[in-house]
Amino acid sequence: MQYALLAYTPPEDTDRTTRPIPDPLADRLDRPDITGWARLHAAETATTVRAEEPPLLVDGPFIDTREYLAGLFVIEADDLDGALAVAGDLLRHTRPGTAIEVRPILAGRFR
Amino acid sequence: MTLEVVFRDQWGRVLSTLVGILGDIELAEEAAADAFAVAAERWPRDGEPANPTGWLVTTARNRAIDQLRRRQVLAGKTTLLARDLELGQSAAAAGPDAATIPDERLELIFTCCHPALARDTQVALTLRTLGGLTTDEIAAAFLVPFDTMSKRLTRAKRKIRDARIPFAVPPDHQLPDRLSAVLAVLYLIFTQGWGGGRVDLAAEAIRLGRALAELMPDEPEVLGLLALMLLHDARRAARLRDGRIVLLDDQDRTLWATRELEEGREVLRQAMIRGRRGPYLIQAAIADLHLHVPRDWPQIAALYRTLAALTRSPLAELNLAVAIAEIDGPAAGLAIPDRLDLAHYRYFHSTRAELLRRAGRTGEAHDAYRTALELARTEPERNFLADRIAETAPPDAARGPARPG
Fold it and tell me: Is the distance from CB of B199 to CB of B137 less than 8 angstroms?
């Protein structure tokens, strides 16, 4: 069984791009039971794609408390347009009404 | 050329070249501002360089390299290191009068108008980066506090950098969608300009439109938008009299800017030759038809029908109603607005009111003018509507005075 752990930080925490990951945490990220991790850019960098025809692009994160976080994808793309194209393609095969938030990854490791 | 003129003309060009080199709008802006400051100090003393743009780009680039070196020392090894080294090499290779500077304004305008940015932000960022307007000026033009605008712009520039919004002209399959977003932003800047204020946004939009037409001379919609803006703007001086809106038929034609009209018509002609009629080109053609005496209403109606079919916009239908009223009488025209869902739109009520008045349905016209007044945004609009409300008031004045807007 695998689990996803989703870490939330206060919105005013804005210097994350320049601040290193604290050493004790960095040590834990190397542990074998952690099969992957990602540090995300701030919520302001998010773009949301909604399943409409054509897909609707919205500036900002997907926030709607009536919805639930149903899954996550980790993808590789050259730039935001590339990532949005993948998100748009995935959306066509998800439940109607799904939205995918595209958030750039600052640093991470996956295996 | 004074430095101010160079600044207005060259800011977008210098900045976009720097963004192309540095990949970071914030850093590019700082460097460009520094270079213009150095120019302000040196040019009056030493004379203007033979190639002002090349001089500004080189100076800014060197400033940016210094800046990156300092950051590098401060922050240790960063991803900027690789760029810095590359940059140091190319800067050494290029002389101060590099005659061939790439014009990357097109890339920058598509970046600023990327759909992953909110529309307000696209507008503000385009004015800042390509127009060189200050944050202060943009905040004043859009009636928001300086801090709000400043945060919005900073956030957008960081999103472009961190989410890696491409600095590129979109590929062919995306171009029509993305170009229409760019044109919508320019037209929004233009229409916002009617309010007046410290910055002449209409002139700014026309300037940006000219730049876009120069960069994409074969896109009929780019030319169509430029023609549309020119044909509207040429009548600007005649649109107001004694603080009131003057309708087209009542305008003093000697106040129209003849050269701007001629330019608008020429651009329209150029656009027509290229075929493919999009919404801006059609609107420009209509704007041109409106200037002829007598007006060719059947032709205008035909174009509004095409526009309505193309855009499915209720606004096109509303305008069609006006043309129909001219051809078949106000009653025929009124059938159209009665089936439109535009109650939130200020000109819906004034247009309907005008048709009702002409149809002799004075009481209904009076009510519609009052609704329009509640939605009116500018003083000249309110004054115009107040006059109409007074004209259509019932003789016994039982309804009471019009509420002020």
Answer: yes
- Which tokens in the block code for residue B138? 């943009």
Arithmetic mean of pLDDT, A62-83? 83
Exposure of B49 in the CB half-sphere (CA atoms within 13 A): 21
| Position B194 pLDDT exceeds 70 | no
pLDDT in tens, B214-238: 999 999 999 999 999 999 999 999 9
Of B115, B121, B170, the CB nearest to A57: B115
What's the pLDDT tens digit per position in B288-317? 999 998 899 999 999 999 999 999 999 999
Per-residue pLDDT reduced to its tens digit, A38-62: 988 888 899 999 887 777 888 988 8
What is the spatial distance between Cα B96 and Cα A94, in angstroms, rounded to a whole number?
Answer: 55
What is the 3-state secondary structure of B292-353?
CCCCCHHHHHHHHHHHHHHHCCHHHHHHHHHHHHHHHCHHHHHCCHHHCCCCCCHHHHHHHH
| Measured distance between the N- and C-terminal CA atoms of chain B, rounded to whole angstroms | 46
Determine contact, residues B344/B205, Cβ cutoff 8 Å.
Answer: no
Which residues from B are below 8 Å from A when comparing CB atoms? Answer: 75, 114-118, 121, 155, 158-159, 162-166, 170, 174, 177
The residue in chain B having the minimum alpha-carbon distance to the alpha carbon of residue A104 is: B163
Quick one: average pLDDT of B319-326? Answer: 95
Chain A contact residues (CB < 8 Å to B): 17-18, 41-42, 44-47, 54, 57, 59-60, 78-81, 84, 102-104, 106
Residues 6+ apart with CB under 8 A from B359: B329, B330, B331, B334
Assign B96 a pLDDT band (cuts: 50, 70, 90). Answer: very low
**Alpha helices, DSSP H only, in chain A?**
23-29, 80-91
How much is the pLDDT for B95?
A: 46
